[in-house]
Structure formats: C-alpha cells, structure tokens
Write a structure and sequence with these properties.
Blueprint: H1 17-39, H2 41-65, H3 79-86, H4 92-106, H5 114-128, H6 142-153, H7 155-169, H8 172-175, H9 184-188, H10 195-201, H11 204-209, H12 221-233, H13 239-264, H14 268-277, H15 281-287, H16 299-319, H17 326-344, H18 353-377, H19 382-391
Length: about 400
C-alpha cells in the first residue's frame, strides 16, 4: 500500500480546491455588496484595506518560504528571478487571503479605523495561517483570529465605530434613547426578558432583510441563507458542520426561551427566531465553521465539531459577560478539531446509533444546564425552577 502525503483540506468529492475557493468568493458577493451599498465608503474602505493587506502579507510570507535556493535578493528584480519566485505561487495564494479578508471585514462594523483593520488583517493572516506554513497547515480560522485580537485590543474603537454606524443609518434610535445598545443583541444584553422592547425597534422582518445595525456581514439573514444554499448546491462546504452548529444553537435557545416563558411569559418561538437572526450566528455557520482546513476530516467528526461550536455560542451569549460569542466559539472548536480526528482514527467514516445518541444526550444535557443557569441568573423563584424541571415549562 502506498501512502500519499497531502495538506488539508481533505476532500472526498469530485471538486477541486480552486473551485471550492471560487465558489466561496461567489457566495460572499451578495453579503459584501449589501454591506457596501448599506454603508457606502465607510464599508468599502474596510473591505478594500483588509483585502490589500492580507494579499500583501501572503505574498511576502509565501515568497520568503518559497524562495528559490541560491537566488540572491537583487535577482528578484530581474525577469528570470521574478519568474522563478512566481513558480512558488498558485491561485490559492490569491483566493484564500481574499476569502479571509472578506470574512474578517464582514465581522467588523463600518467606519472601523483603518489602523485597526490593518492590524487585524496582519495578525489574522500571519498568526492565523502563515505561521503554520501557509494554506492547508493552519489550525485556526484566520478571520476569527484577527477579529478576536482587535476586539480585545481595540474594543473602544470598534464600539465607537458601531455606534457611529448605528447613528448614521438609524437616527431614530437616538431619539428613542437606545443608541447605547443599538444592535439587536445589544438590546437583549444583560436582560433576556427585554424581547418585547427589542421588537419595538427591530422586527423579525427587519432582522430577516438586514434593516438593522451591526457587523457588516451579520445583518441580512436572507442574503446569508441564499449564500448558504449556493454553497451547498455547489458542494463547496460540508453541510454537517453548519447543520450541527445551527441545530445545537436552536435547541439551546429553545431551552432558554422556555425558561423565559416560565418566568415572564416570553413567546418561545419569537425569542428563538430573534436570537437566531440577531448577531453573527448565521454568518459564522455559513462562512466560518465550514472552513475545510480547520474542520475534522470525518463525517461524524464534522457534525460533532459544529455541535460543539453551537453549544459554546449559546453558553457565551446567554450566561457569559459577552453578548456575542461566534468567533470565540469557532476558535475553541478549531482547537478541538485535531482531538476529534485523533479519537475518530481507525473508525468507519460514517455514523453509528451510539454516536448519534451520545451527541443528542450531550446537547440535551448542555441545554438543561444552560436553562437552569439562566433561571438562576434571572433570580427566578423556586416554583418556576420546579416547573422547569418537571415539565420544561410546558403549555406554550
């Protein structure tokens, strides 16, 4: 038997990596165009800056890693030397940084300061991918790495950009004195029972169409879903990871909705739809958790990987101190991907009823733990907790 060594992604379908990457770019086009139209130049310069910086860093780093043996630096400026240098590049050295740049820029609000975009782009592409040996070797999502870095280091600048964007696009929020929590998730932050008030400012239709403030790529549910369908039809992504993330988050959110129903009569389904369309859950589910390089290689591994990400998003969002947790959840899932592959080694590339049962029990237990944690956070009386335990707040 002959073993061939290749870098990820490990694709078990009749499609090339080049075609996959082009399809991802095509799928990003509706979301990116919407961001550019909605925000004008404030959105365009963020996108262009990220693309230019990531392409430049990719070119420099790969050029150094693929430097022809024995060639002197001055030879690079000759026709023959430049041609030799270009032999170390391929189309993936263009499409991959463009994808990372587009995703990173979509995680930011419009009017983010240029220096923040530059720093995040450099950190994302360099420490999220190139430091591991370029495409196919990285274990973290570059866009998530860049975003988390700037979110931790430049949170005031990003928050200020978001407030300015909100004030520019939705001046009515200033009149209603809700600008401090202007985004849909901001309206719910610290008060999960605030759904009725939040719906006064943002209806479910607003969330579906994108008539809300937020990170540029997260606001339009309909465009994200259209992109998801295109990626599925073009076979550019593994559906298991995104479905696992989506379904686990929905189950966790339903449990939180039941707790809110028991405590204050919040409509469970309206709350679930609001939370599903608010924030970056859907964008992360479509464009980030589906990255074939950082995901496990087996079918069940991909499903488990997505489920873990969805559970972590819910835990961060509902009982953490941070109103959104998609990028953090994806990086944590990235860390676990090699472990998942390790435990799946030697096993058939499919599903067993024991695996699916165990996965279902894991999500159910996580949902119940989250429900009781939210119940305690709300300071609910003992009777409400007992009703939740015995009947999960039945009757809705």
């Amino acid at each position: 038997m002959i073993f061939a060594r290749h870098n990820s992604p490990y694709i078990r379908k009749n499609v090339s990596v080049k075609k996959m990457m082009l399809n991802v770019i095509i799928a990003l086009v509706p979301v990116v165009l919407f961001a550019m139209i909605q925000n004008g130049w404030n959105g365009i310069y963020v996108i262009l800056t990220s693309i230019l910086v990531m392409l430049l860093v990719e070119f420099i780093a790969v050029g150094l890693m693929k430097w022809p043996a024995g060639m002197k630096f001055k030879e690079l400026f000759t026709k023959e030397g430049f041609k030799k240098e270009l032999e170390g590049f391929n189309i993936n050295n263009i499409t991959c940084p463009i994808i990372s740049a587009l995703i990173f820029s979509m995680l930011l609000p419009a009017a983010t300061p240029v220096y923040v975009v530059i720093v995040g782009s450099i950190v994302g592409i360099l420490f999220g991918k190139l430091i591991y040996g370029a495409y196919g070797n990285n274990i973290f999502n570059p866009a998530a790495v860049g975003f988390i870095f700037v979110k931790l280091c430049f949170s005031q600048q990003i928050d200020a950009a978001l407030l300015n964007q909100t004030a520019a696009l939705f001046p009515g929020l200033i009149e209603n004195n809700v600008i401090a929590g202007g985004t849909p998730l901001g309206q719910m932050a610290g008060n999960l029972g605030n759904l009725a008030e939040a719906l006064k400012h943002y209806s479910l239709l607003d969330l579906f169409l994108g008539n809300v403030p937020g990170a540029m790529g997260e606001v339009s549910t309909i465009l994200i879903l259209i992109s998801w369908i295109y990626l599925i039809v073009s076979r550019a992504i593994d559906l298991r990871a995104s479905l696992g993330m989506l379904l686990s988050f929905i189950l966790m959110t339903l449990c939180v909705g039941i707790v809110l129903y028991v405590n204050n009569g919040t409509d469970v389904w309206t709350f679930t739809l609001y939370e599903l369309m608010a924030g970056g859950l859907l964008f992360g589910m479509v464009f980030m958790i589906t990255d074939p390089v950082t995901a496990p290689v087996t079918k069940f591994g991909n499903l488990l990987y997505g489920v873990i990400a969805g559970v972590i998003v819910a835990l961060i969002r509902y009982i953490g101190a941070y109103p959104e947790g998609v990028a953090f959840a994806i990086l944590l899932a990235n860390m676990l991907a090699p472990t998942i592959d390790y435990f799946m080694r030697g096993k058939p590339n499919g599903y067993t009823w024991k695996q699916l049962l165990g996965l279902g029990i894991f999500v159910l237990v996580a949902a119940l733990v989250l429900g009781f944690a939210v119940n305690a956070k709300l300071g609910a009386p003992a009777e409400a907790a007992l009703n939740l335990a015995l009947g999960l707040g039945g009757g809705f």
